[in-house]
């Protein structure tokens, strides 16, 4: 389940990036009620990409931004409360990691759902049902 963070360069220190990504992972798993799941936990992957200052935009003008995007199967964070909880947490995690260098107002969080059957892990294409079964079988680590 990739978590991708796109940020204007200079918002985060290297140490803050490490902590931020760990906290985003923990929040995603917690809001999905899968903290410690032996199948899902190692498959929450991602990256932090930075864009040079002057190459990110908000409102049509050059502005610093942070975008947190999840790519997940359609059953992930299924309830409105789970979605809202993750968005609130992710915004706070990013805001804290920025250490005063970036406003909440330009922190954006979204989710993209993968098409059923197009979730690949280690060369296997999983359907949503197969992912659910693998998660259930694994349980907590």
Tell me the structural class: alpha/beta
Helical coverage, percent range = 25-40%
Contiguous low-pLDDT stretches (5 residues minimum) are none
**Can you summarize the main beta sheet?**
4 strands, mixed
The total of beta strands comes to: 8
Lateral strand order in the biggest sheet: 2-1-5-6
How far apart the termini lie comes to 17 Å
Task: Please tell me about this protein's structure.
By secondary structure, the chain is of the alpha/beta class. The protein is 33% helix and 27% strand. It has helices at residues 14-31, 80-97, 128-138, and strands at 3-8, 46-51, 57-58, 61-62, 66-73, 107-114, 119-121, 124-126. The strands form 3 sheets. A 4-stranded mixed beta sheet has the order 2-1-5-6, with helices on one face. The chain has a two-stranded antiparallel sheet with strand order 3-4. A hairpin with a 2-residue loop joins β3 and β4 (61-62). α1 packs antiparallel against α2 (80-97). The longest helix has 18 residues, at 14-31. The model has no long low-confidence stretch (mean pLDDT 92).
Structural key phrases:
single chain, 141 residues, alpha/beta, 4-stranded mixed sheet, two-stranded antiparallel sheet, 33% helix, 27% strand
SSE topology sketch:
Blueprint: E1 3-8, H1 14-31, E2 46-51, E3 57-58, E4 61-62, E5 66-73, H2 80-97, E6 107-114, E7 119-121, E8 124-126, H3 128-138
Parallel strand pairs: 1-2, 5-6
Antiparallel strand pairs: 1-5, 3-4, 7-8
Helix pairs in contact: 1-2
């Amino acid at each position: 389940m990739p978590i991708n963070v796109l940020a204007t360069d200079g918002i985060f220190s290297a140490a803050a990036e490490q902590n931020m990504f760990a906290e985003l992972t923990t929040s995603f798993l917690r809001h999905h009620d899968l903290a410690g799941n032996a199948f899902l936990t190692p498959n929450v992957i991602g990256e932090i990409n930075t864009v040079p200052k002057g190459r990110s935009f908000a409102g049509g003008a050059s502005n610093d931004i942070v975008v947190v995007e999840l790519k997940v199967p359609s059953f992930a964070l299924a309830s409105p409360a789970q979605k809202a909880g993750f968005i609130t947490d992710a915004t706070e995690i990013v805001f804290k990691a920025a250490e005063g260098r970036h406003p909440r107002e330009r922190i954006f969080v979204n989710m993209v759902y993968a098409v059923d059957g197009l979730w690949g892990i280690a060369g296997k294409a999983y359907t949503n049902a197969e992912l659910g079964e693998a998660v259930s079988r694994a349980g907590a680590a």
